[in-house]
Amino acid sequence: MEQETKSDKKMKKSLIASLMEAGASPLRPPSFKEDTYHHQNLKPSEKKALEDIKDMLHSTSNFQESMWGIPLTMTSDTEKSDVILLKFLRARDFKVQETFNMLLKCLSWRKDFGADTILEEDLGFKELEGVVAYMNGFDREGHPVCYNAYGIFKNHEMYDKIFGDDEKLQKFLRWRVQVLERGIKMLQFKPGGVNSIIQVTDLKDMPKRELREASNHILSLFQDNYPEMVACKIFINVPWYFSMLFAIFSPFLTQRTRSKIVISKEGSVAETLYKYIRPEDIPVQYGGLSRPTELTNGPAKPASEFTVKGGERVNIQIEGIEMGATITWDLVVGGWELEYCAEFIPNDVGSYTIAVEKARKMVATDNAVHNSYTAKEAGKLILSINNTASSKRKVAAYRYLVQRCSSTV
């Protein structure tokens, strides 16, 4: 066997280095241009395909089907039905007969599966709600965001409980479709509106081999019955080999598919998600400020975003706090690995500074700070973020609420 030359070794080393470098930061191909579904933006051939598929549906005897509550034929609200038809046409490259067949199969599946009434079902997966697959907030453009994390199934007992036999697997698939239908219910189905969702998939601790069958089932169901429903797929906590595989195989993907995919390795999760989603809408475990208990209390209170440079110390001053007022605050720094403390400084020069939270090292696994303090005298609160031991710039966010003491007579 021929020995590897120095030139070959150098080339291989260069390739591996470039792939590792690609996996070291968020990978984002040219931005995906989501369809507007405005007729004036369609090519002549696409307009014709839309009219042809509508004619085929009209000529189908007794065809009175609807999808997501929107009639596909004989409706005055053609804008919404056109959005749905254009999604199916796009999925089949505007080939009318193939689109027609796909549409009929999807309608048949929805009827057999009971997709139109699945939101009313209690499938008994309370322990998976907010953990495995769940809708949580919106991205900066208003798309509903669905989070997926399957690391919990590395526990063999949990895996057997959910996927132990085919009956359990089918029940899980119903639940996963239920989560997706919950997100689709938030869509507008109108030209220029919000017509798709964002998928964030956490690959940390995911048992890939064990979940292969379930993953294939989910992928097949979604591809066949929910075309063009995902505007962007963000993979987070991506292992190094996944980044390498993506770098190798991405040239074989279509530009449209590549533009929908974002890859972020562990340690860059918050920095990546902040580009697409506001901090108050990102779950705390991913460097955001959103907690499950807050989801039922209306829209999240907006947060202020900032960066902490390497070697920098940032002090956030919240002034004008009156005596008896209670201040509640949230603070998060992507990846943490720095020192944090909070102190209250009274206005009276004769008073002592109060250490509300003593200085402590915050590690990468720590969630957002959530605390409150009731002032016994007027003053200001200072939140201190010390990143002087690091050279890495970090994204951060905070918000606060001051509740004044109600005077009594």
Task: Summarize the structure in words.
The chain has 409 residues and is α+β, with helices and mostly antiparallel strands. It folds into three domains: 21-33 and 114-285, 3-Layer(aba) Sandwich (Phosphatidylinositol Transfer Protein Sec14p), CATH 3.40.525.10; 39-113, Helicase, Ruva Protein, domain 3; 304-403, GOLD domain (Jelly Rolls). The model is unreliable at 1-30 (pLDDT under 50). The chain has a five-stranded mixed β-sheet with strand order 3-4-5-6-7. A four-stranded antiparallel β-sheet has the order 8-15-10-13. A four-stranded antiparallel β-sheet has the order 9-14-11-12, with no helix packed on it. α1 (6-23) packs across α8. The chain is built from ten helices and 15 strands.
Entry summary:
Helices cover 31% and strands 24% of the residues. By secondary structure, it is of the alpha+beta class. It folds into three domains: 21-33 and 114-285, Phosphatidylinositol Transfer Protein Sec14p (3-Layer(aba) Sandwich), CATH 3.40.525; 39-113, Helicase, Ruva Protein, domain 3 (Orthogonal Bundle), CATH 1.10.8; 304-403, GOLD domain (Jelly Rolls), CATH 2.60.120.680.
